[in-house]
Amino acid sequence: MHTVTALWYTRCPVATASSIAIDLGWLDEEFAPDGITVSSLGASASDDVHRSHFDHRHPSSFRQGGNVPAIWARAQGQDVRLLGATWGERFQALVALPESGIRSAADLTGRRLPLQRRLHDQVDFRRATSLRAYETVLGSAGIPLADVTLVDLPVTETYIGDLGGGRTGTLFGPRKLRRLQAAEVFALIRGEVDAIYVSGALGIELAALLDATVVADITGYDAAQQVNNITPTLLTVSGELLRDRPDLVTRYVAVLLRAARWARSHAEQTRRIIAHEVGAIEEWIPAAHGAEVHRELTPSLDPALLAAVAAQQQFLLGHGFITSEFEVARWAAPEILASAARLAGAADHPAEGEDDHDARWAAAGR
Asked: What pLDDT is stored for residue 346 in this prediction?
C-alpha cells in the first residue's frame, strides 16, 4: 500500500461541505491518528502549488469549487477524477446603472457587455462565466450574441496571489475577492460598458453599492439556464491518489458527507461558515445562496448533475476555452461516493461525536 503522509485541499469561495468540515476540524480529526496532515494549498509558499487550484497537478489533493477549472484540467489531460457535484441555489444576475435606461433583457440589443481577459492566468473562469450568463440572458429575450458588443477588459493581476497564509485558509482572501470584478465595475462606472454579470453574495454587495437595476435575475430561470461555473460545484481528486489509496479518498469523502449532514440541522452555524468563506456579511447568505443552503451541500452523482457538467463542457468547447472533450460519466468515480455513504452512516443518524461540536460552537461564541 502506497504510504501517504499528507493530503491537500483547495476550495473556491462558495458554499461547500468542504468548508464545513474544515471549519469543524473534522478532516484533521479523521487523519491525525494515521500521522497524515491535511492542509490547504495556501499553506505552501510555492506559486506552483497554489496554481494547482486550477490545474490540479499537486499530488494527493482534493478540490471543491467551480466546474470551469475542473473541466479545463481534465480536458488538458490532467490526471483528475470527479467524486461528486452539488447543485445549490446561487444569485446570478445582469445589472446596470439606473441612468442607463436598461430595465430588462430586451433592452440589451446594441449594448456593450464586458469580458475580462486575464493575461497571466491558466484558465479564465471569469470570462467563461460572464459569457455564459450573457448568452443565457440574451437567449431568453431572443437576442443573438452578435447583437451586442463584447468589450475586452485586459487584466494583468492574477486570480491567486497576496495570500494571507494559514494551514486551513482559502486561496481567495478578502482583498482578492473584492478585486475579482474590479475591471468590470470601473468600466461600468466610467460608462465604457452598459451592464455586468454579478453572482453570489459579493454580487448582491456590488448591486447594492452601485444602486444598480437588476436587468435579469438568472436565479429565477429554468435549471438548465442556470448552469454556470458554480452551478454545479464539483468535488475532484488526484487520479493517482484514487488509484493508490482509494481507502483514504473514501474516508475523506465520508467526512464531507458527515459535514453536509451536520449542516442540515445547523442552519445558523452553516450560514456563518459560508459567510466567512465567501467574504460576505451573514445576512446576505440566504439571498445569495437560498434559505435552504444548509440542506444543499451533499455531493452527488445524480444523472441530472452529470448532464449539467456535460452541457458546461460543450459550452467551453464551443467557445474555445477547451480544445478537447471527454465522457463525463467515465470521468466520475461513483464507487467512492457509494462507499463513503456507507462509511458515513445513515443520513438520519449523527455519526459518533457529531453532536459534540454543538458545545464547541457554543464555547466559541458562534
From this structure: 42
Beta bridge partner(s), residue 238: 80
Q: Which CATH class is domain 92-226?
A: alpha beta
Label residue 171 by pLDDT band (50, 70, 90): confident
Whole-number pLDDT of residue 206? 95
* Rounded distance between C-alpha atoms, residue 118 and residue 311, angstroms: 24
Q: Give the per-residue pLDDT at 44.
A: 86
- Provide the b/e sequence for 187-222 (b: ≥16 CB within 10 Å): bbeeeebbbbbbbbbbbbbbbeebebbebbebbebe
Q: CB neighbours of 287 closer than 8 A, spacing ≥ 6? A: 91, 201, 204
Q: Is 6-87+231-363 CATH 3.40.50.2300?
A: no
> Exposed, middle or buried: residue 224 (CB in 10 Å: 0-12, 13-18, 19+)?
exposed
Nearest to 336 by CA among 30, 80, 82: 82
The per-residue pLDDT of the chain, averaged, comes to 92
Measuring CA to CA, which residue among 86, 30, 16, 64 is closest to residue 247?
30
E strands in 87-145: 92-96, 112-118
Global confidence as pTM: 0.92
Q: How far apart are CA 237 and CA 9, in angstroms?
A: 9
Give the pairing of strands 6-11 and 37-40: parallel
Q: Where are the domains of the chain?
A: 6-87+231-363, 92-226
**CA angle (68, 263, 58) in 5-degree steps:** 35
